[in-house]
Amino acid sequence: MYEKITPPDAGASIIFKDEEPIVPDNPIIPFIRGDGTGVDIWPAAKKVIDEAVATAYGNKRKIHWFKIYAGDEACDLYGTYQYLPEDTLKAIKEYGIAIKGPLTTPVGGGIRSLNVALRQINDLYACVRPCRYYLGTPSPHKYPEKVDAIVYRENTEDIYLGIEWPQGSEIGQKLIDFLNRELIPATPEHGNKQIRLDSGIGIKPISKIGSQRLVRRAIQHALRLPKAKQKVTLVHKGNIMKYTEGAFRDWGYEVATTEFRADCVTERESWILSNKEKNPELTVEENARFIEPGYNTLTPDKQEKISREVEAVLEAIWESHGGGKWQEKVLVNDRIADSIFQQIQTRPDEYSILATMNLNGDYLSDALAALVGGLGMGPGANIGDNCAIFEATHGTAPKHAGLDRINPGSVILSGAMMLEFMGWQEAADLIKKGIAKSIASRQVTYDLARLMVPPVEPPLKCSEFAQAIIDNFQS
Known about the structure:
14% strand
């Protein structure tokens, strides 16, 4: 079945049913070591994951690891430019869950990004990036302990679909000419806008299907959280890009108020319900005035529209959500993308799950990670309906490769995410406990050690940090 790799003799495949993994006690899990510092961080992560499983379950459960290849290591085995061999794609599809270290982005033509390619090939539409603070981790934020958010980033479309043409290309020029001559003039709202002829041009597709399946998974995650954390914020730039990012927001609300009607309340609905609860005699018009800033300056038709909205909400959900019952529901709201970047710093405790499109999610997840220790402490998962890949969220850092000094925390915490996804919560909890205690006791690698006050001298090696985590499972 495979050209150059052989699966373990023991173990069984993880299969997916109704979009959830069915995990045997002896799963075969493919792993990609990763390029650059992958040579250091993967052995450290594997050791921690294996020890956590053994400590939690004894001989009852065991992961059977299956080495597969991507990136520079794949080229060494399969030949020049074979960055993503067919063997690797087959193994991930057959065994359902995989984990990987950092991968080199090929230079020149062909695959633009191995990470993006793996997501798109396997339709891993939800990039999930938890960002939480471990006590003692150096942070530029004054109150990093308030940061505990999960980014749900749509993984398969937006500008990352990679449909673009360079300035001066024949196809690019044809498209610009067609837009300027035919499509833009035929769309009155665009007025006299024209695209400059010396432009590069790209396409930004945002689909209803892609948006709603992402938001659906985010809400399902919120329902598993403690009540105080059951919030989903739709992040978008819909005030400018109304038919892509604005549509994402609208489609997200549609999922919340149809598929999850019994479990969700929108922020605006909560205002309407709360106003009526505070004053049962409040008129519809008075309620509308409370929920809409500048209501008195609006035209009569816009005022009427808001009043109809109030009436519709009260008619639809007063019985099911009124009388304070809405406070037990998942709260769904939305924020403009540029605003959320300052709010996660000034009011991070107000946010729990942030659901957004590809580019916004890329920026936002890295910004949140910076508040809690950087990408070295940032886990990540790419999840679809029939497959999941867990990964390091940082680059390959080749200058540190082979020196046993880099922080393996990202892959280790991604391993904990993987165990949670598999339903092996006890093992995942041991890893998080071990990391928390190691950092609190200043047992850290150089990246954290040099930022602590006073600095830790000497810092732990990569392999030593892994052992410290294991030693702290039971301490």
